[in-house]
Amino acid sequence: MKRSWNPGLWWGFVLALVAIVSYPLIFTRYPITRDFPWVTLLLLAIAFFLLATGIARAFQRPDAYCGKVLGSILGVLTVLFVGIFVFAIFYMARQIPASRGAPKVGELAPDFTLPDSQNNAVTLSALLNSPFAPNGSAAPSAASGKTAGAILIFYRGYW
């Protein structure tokens, strides 16, 4: 009797590689999948299931399905790759040192200059000293006596 191809082994290994590669290429772009890699972990769970069923099939029915040696090799490689991925995501990514020079909540920010959307230089002090335009109107009201404010949002991490 000719032994048939064992697709669970190959699909499980390929799906594990796709899951690991898709996280930095696709899923880090969206906060819902970047902050906690739930889609990648779901794909890895499916890959482990396929691989385990393929290995079990190869060892339970070696006369019908091939893959005892290759299944073991693919299983070890998958566990190694997933282990490195999980170590990098859950341990190494959390080892970013604390930013000692960043302003704290409520602390005054240092003055800085950045380009706006038209590439004109804008300073923080100029924004804080400009008159406030009520109700989003284009002409600021100097009679209101209020000055504009600025909201600064600091993002920390990788892009």
Describe this structure as you would to a colleague.
A hairpin with a 5-residue loop joins strand 1 and strand 2. This protein starts with 6 loop residues before the first helix and ends in a 30-residue tail after the last helix. The protein has 2 domains: 7-95; 100-159, no CATH class. Helix 1 packs parallel to helix 4 (68-90) and helix 3 (38-60) runs antiparallel to helix 4. The radius of gyration is 28 Å and the shape is rod-shaped. It has 5 helices and 2 strands, in the order ααααββα. The model has no long low-confidence stretch (mean pLDDT 83). It has a two-stranded antiparallel ribbon. It has helices spanning 7-25, 31-34, 38-60, 68-90, 124-129, and strands at 113-115, 121-123. With 159 residues, the chain is mainly α.
In short:
The protein has 5 helices and 2 strands; from the N terminus they run ααααββα. The protein has 159 residues and is mainly α. The protein has a two-stranded antiparallel ribbon.
List the helices and strands and how they pair.
Layout lengths: L6 H19 L5 H4 L3 H23 L7 H23 L22 E3 L5 E3 H6 L30
Antiparallel strand pairs: 1-2
Helix pairs in contact: 1-3, 1-4, 3-4
